[in-house]
Amino acid sequence: MKGVMPSDIREKMKLLDRAEIIHLGGGLPDPAIFPYEPLSDASARLWADRARAQTALQYAPSEGYLPLREWIAGYMTRQGTACEADNVIITNGSQQGLDFLAKLLLSPGDKALVEIPSFIGALRAFDAYEPQYLGLPEDSADWNPTDLAGAKFCYVGPDFRNPTGTCMSRKDRLALLDLADDTGMAIIEDGCYEQLRYEGEDIASVAALAAERYGSIERSPVLHTGTFSKTIAPSLRVGWIAGPRDVIRRLVLIKQASDLATSALNQMLLLDVVRDHLDTSTRIARSVYRDRCRSMLDAMEEFMPHGVSWTRPQGGLYVWAELPDGIDGAALAARALLERSVSIISGSAFYPANATNIVPKPNTFRLSFSMIPAAAAREGIERLGGLIREG
Ligand SMILES: Cc1ncc(COP(=O)(O)O)c(C=O)c1O
């Protein structure tokens, strides 16, 4: 654990209760849109049925509650990755899935290929297994199998990456499969935001493209992590990994050793809710976040000074901004909090520590619109733009 750094974001959350602060950094799902009534009804149904209640309070199987695994296999199949319950393990959120995959695949000093910048939670999970990081070049024309040989896996978030909000094109997803073919590495596909598209056409997941290419999930190099945290509620801590059975069987051993099982109660409640309400919950989430994304981007257009550039996401929860050279994102984040009561996350947090081929961009920061209504976005971005302009 000597090499594992505290997460800038978890540290910032300690400041959440100062009322005057506008939190443009966070990225939590908005609790106003959690499905309270469906969860309460599912709960009442469960307690009224003694046999189900007994199952809910008992240890669950380590691989997860079978009807939920079957439901997820059906969902993955509808998304283009034909699979069965044996291809799915339930984890405590997809964060635990990332930890387990690193535990399975990495020994100290092994190479891990990651997108640059990358989700901070994944980097912190991988850090504990002491990999040597390699950055996946931004342009797939530079994905040279010789340079990237020896990596145990490549970690990607093709849909609306955290932190940049950008998407991987279909062409690059296919090129990633070519790279996996050439190097023998696994692909960890983080599907956290795949349901949160607000504009544009859906692109098949890397897992789906692999299933099509290889004819079966059993021959696929892709391990896909999914979650209900952004469409239902994060506190239930229910996520999953889908992949070839052999890999899932090994992950079940890791799960047994780690925490035995995910809460049966949470899995049963969640299944009851997703069966009837996932579509509605997802529709509500898309509609609320789409509006917030637009209002934050409008405010950026209005208040960001010349020389600042930013991404225009078609989904997810994040916008990534680049400052003119020489302005440090971490220094800006500290001043924004102190002088303007605006919180942002410095971009440097999203770069792995010991990567050989990565030059971090210190002049970057991440914003999130998930909890920010239009008026607050305008106010927060105006304050931030003013601070950048003052220099
Ligand atoms: C890209 C990404 N992956 C995984 C997670 C973990 O989510 P959970 O453990 O709640 O499924 C998050 C959380 O914000 C995330 O942004």
From TrEMBL:
InterPro entries: Aminotransferase_I/II_large (IPR004839), Class-I_PLP-dep_aminotransf (IPR050859), PyrdxlP-dep_Trfase (IPR015424), PyrdxlP-dep_Trfase_major (IPR015421), PyrdxlP-dep_Trfase_small (IPR015422). Pfam families: Aminotran_1_2 (PF00155). Keywords: Aminotransferase, Pyridoxal phosphate, Transferase. GO terms for biological process: alpha-amino acid metabolic process. GO terms for molecular function: pyridoxal phosphate binding; transaminase activity. Its cofactor is pyridoxal 5'-phosphate. CDD domains: AAT_like (cd00609). Signal peptide: none annotated. Transmembrane segments: none annotated. Residues 50-126, 162-384 form the Aminotransferase class I/classII large domain. This is Aminotransferase class I/classII large domain-containing protein. It comes from Croceicoccus naphthovorans.
